[in-house]
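Researcher: Structure for this, please.
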Amino acid sequence: STTGEPILLNNIADAEAFVGGAEVAVIGFFQEPESAEASQFRQAAARTPEVPFGLSSSPAVLSHYGVSANTVSLFRRVHNDRRDLDMNNEDVDTEKMIRFVRINELRLVTEYDPVTSIGVMQSSLRFNLLLITDKMSSKHPERMRRFRAAAELFKGKILFILLDSNLKSNEQVVSYFQLKKSQLPALAIFHTPDDEHDVMTVDEISTERVQDFCNRFIQ
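Model: Predicted structure, token format:
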């Protein structure tokens, strides 16, 4: 839905198709679709139009996903998992729902910023690969296309991250890898348990180069 209005999911087949059709999908499970909680969920959907929102009050759908009423679930393909926000025991409002979505919306390639960084830190994947690059560059769309193609090959193994070198908030990360702006774009791979990492400056991104760099580091 491009209107920011949640799609109504009346049966299990609709819900599964909805989840399967997006990198990140959010479903609000509500017994009463007109409840105050459901109304706040609709507001969150309207303010997060880049993420598909669905809403279900079907007992069969709730049972299928093993949730109680008043639960917001975020499904993400990159880990093949989901995160639940229980609205029954907490004082959850629209703002908290949006924050829950923004923190957990890890994608095939996740853009790094102060909010998504929390989700990146909490990721179960032990390897992170950063593409540190200037998003304003005319070469950016093609670089991203190749980087995404490589991300498909390592789905569930490596978290692929885009780091825009123009953002002031990212300067610390760039300096952590001892890179200067003149050396960008660069790839930086990171093993979270022991902070071991490797950096490669690249004139051009190719899917094969990214693949070789990742495989060498993992081995």
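Researcher: Any notable elements?
Model: The CA atoms of residues 49 and 100 lie 15 Å apart. The mean pLDDT is 93.
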